[in-house]
Specification:
3 strands, single chain, hpI Integrase, Chain A, DNA polymerase, domain 1, mainly alpha, 298 residues
């Protein structure tokens, strides 16, 4: 069983080129599934059937796992058995026939322009920490990159003269994304006034580091955003991804083509970008209901 597991991880890394987060998620899901098989006397995962999959779904339900968690688990298992099909270990994917309850997709939280300004006014740029935080917030909203991409940036990835960011992701094409002038100014201030005072020997070429001089982490930046959200008394649940969603919707609101937004976000499939069309329609409906005098009467 260990041989299967090790080979599957190699497949995800070297052939599927999945992100570290996806790799961790699939690995965790498969560890639980393989433990379930072992507990039920099945040492060879290639022997699993559709009935085995049904039993596992029922097991997850009995543990009160959410629909989204069960769906994610089955996606991991489906990928594993597709890998076994490719290897010639099995003929058919037994997880393919499993039909799960459809998830009601929750629309992501979006910040208004006023909320963006309020959030970005919280860091005290006179202090090294505040200067760095302001630069990170501005750059994230300016480019719509993922927080994992933000913390992986090196100094050489930002061309302040050209006003462009080069976003690199292993196994993916580079994305060149423009940076608006306020973000350029914030990053410039951080680079020339603060970074050299906090960078440590472990920081390397990292664009953003923590105050101990090491590369900033996703968890560290999440805490930074949470702190400023509370400080600004913003009641919405804001995460680093909220700025990515806000970036995309605000571009769409102001006339950007969906295809261009797809490229900047780094979505492989435009269907992932189309959520912002639904968001925009939802936003216009809210505006209509709140502002049209006849709609307000109802």
């Amino acid at each position: 069983m260990k041989d299967y597991f090790s080979a599957f991880r190699d497949y995800l890394i070297y052939q599927k080129s999945v992100s570290k987060n996806t790799l961790d998620s699939y690995t965790r899901d498969m560890e639980h599934f393989l433990a379930f098989l072992a507990e039920n006397g099945m040492e060879n995962p290639a022997d699993a059937t559709t009935e085995t999959m049904d039993a596992y779904v029922k097991n997850l339900s009995s543990l009160h796992r959410s629909t989204s968690t069960i769906t994610r688990n089955m996606a991991s298992i489906r990928c594993f058995y597709q890998f076994l099909v490719i290897r010639g270990e099995i003929v058919q994917n037994p997880a393919k026939a499993i039909r799960l309850e459809k998830i009601q997709r929750k629309l992501p939280e979006i910040l208004s322009g006023e909320e963006i300004e309020l959030l970005f006014s919280q860091p005290d740029i006179r202090e090294p920490k505040g200067c760095r935080d302001k630069a990170m917030l501005e750059l994230l909203y300016a480019t719509g990159i993922r927080v994992s991409e933000l913390v992986e940036l090196n100094v050489s990835d930002v061309n302040l003269t050209a006003g462009m960011l080069c976003c690199k992701k292993e196994g993916k094409a580079e994305r060149m994304i423009p940076i608006y002038s306020t973000a350029i100014a914030a990053v410039s201030d951080y680079l020339f006034r603060v970074r050299n005072t906090i960078i440590g020997p472990d920081g390397g070429h990292a664009l953003f580091t923590n105050l101990n001089g090491r590369r900033m982490t996703r968890q560290g930046f999440w805490k930074i955003i949470k702190g400023y959200t509370e400080q600004a008394n913003i009641t919405k649940e804001i995460t680093p991804h909220t700025l990515r969603h806000s970036f995309a919707l605000h571009l769409l609101e102001n006339g950007a083509a969906l295809k261009d937004i797809q490229v900047m976000l780094g979505h492989a499939d435009i269907s992932s970008t189309q959520i912002y069309v639904h968001l925009l329609n939802h936003h216009f409906k809210e505006v209509y209901n709140n502002c049209h005098p006849k709609a307000k009467l109802g």
